[in-house]
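Quick log. Single chain, no ligands specified.
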Amino acid sequence: PGETKMPRSARQISPDVVYLISNSCAGNQNLLNNYSEYRDFGYSCRDAARQCNVLLYAYALMSQDVYFIVRSSDPESYGRWMRKVMISHALRFRANYGGRGAVWQGRYAAIPVQDSYVAPVLSYLRTLPHKSDHPPHSTQHWQLPDTAFPPDGPEGGIASHHWIKACVARRTPIGDLGWSRQYTMPSSRDEQRSRPNSLEQTTQFLDHD
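-> predicted structure:
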């Protein structure tokens, strides 16, 4: 008899908590290939966030991985927003490049971030282009969306970039130990489904002209 597939664990999402959300390509394909594609993806993310009542604090786009720092008072809004973003891009991608099959991995990661750790996470994301062998496009740079402001917090010192990178890789909450214990992360089986490719790829920080 064939192997019985175990159901995925339910995603634990809390209202009014900042999340670092990420997703990756399905297979080893570049999903963002030029400046206009990065720009259009950024516009699409912001428009969908407004429609779904999600505060989009910042995003980091890479050729095979995308990262968002977001907050919402409605836990279900994250799923609606991600579906809009992923489906709209998949349709554009197939229209431009053809092919068949999945474009994005179906199970995105959602890591809770304590308010006082948001600024260090932003700082960590900004370092990724400088650690890559392939620097980002010269006309692209980091800037927060003008529709939302992240919680106040220190720019550094509260958490090292190395520790944040480890939390991202393990899909563990980013915050103080007592605070982190409130949140149940997906099982290791689900993490394997949604593990992104190497964080050392080029990150694209987009302007909002």
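The beta strands are 18-24, 55-62, 65-71, 109-113, 203-204.
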